[in-house]
Amino acid sequence: MEVIKATLSNLEQLVPLFDGYRVFYKHKSDLDAARNFLKERLIKQDSVIFLCLDASDKGLGFTQLYPSYSSVSMQRTYILNDLYVAPEARKKGVGEALMENAKKFAKQQGSKGLTLETDIDNPAQTLYKKLGWKKDTHVNHYTWEA
């Protein structure tokens, strides 16, 4: 198992994982839209995607980080927006490897840290707690949708 920073050459390894991620969150499967979305992210370099591969270069999981900034601390921060492990690769350390790689990357970038949000019933919360993530209890998050 190896975690790499994805490039355009990894697009076809990422597409089924990204599509699976969206289906997990109750969206309709759409491989073409997934491919186009990821291709745009990779070309524009407006996100950082880490991909976990097995020995035969099959994609096992991915995480996608979006850069942001904290005005109060005057530092870059990253939003860990997506984390997905293929069903057949779960409980094998893939999610942990991806998250630890994301933490290492954030430190290397001089980032304040990482933030994520997840569904209240997402079973991955056990992993987050195990890896030292803290549940935010001192601020409220609000969303506005167009």
UniProtKB/TrEMBL annotation:
Keyword Acyltransferase listed: yes
Highest taxon in the source lineage: Bacteria
Pfam family name, one: Acetyltransf_1
Keyword vocabulary terms for this entry: Acyltransferase, Transferase
The N-acetyltransferase domain, residue ranges: 1-146
Recorded GO MF terms: acyltransferase activity, transferring groups other than amino-acyl groups
PROSITE patterns to which the protein is assigned, alphabetical: GNAT
Keyword match Metal-binding: no
Protein name from the UniProt record: GNAT family N-acetyltransferase
Organism encoding this protein: Aequorivita lipolytica
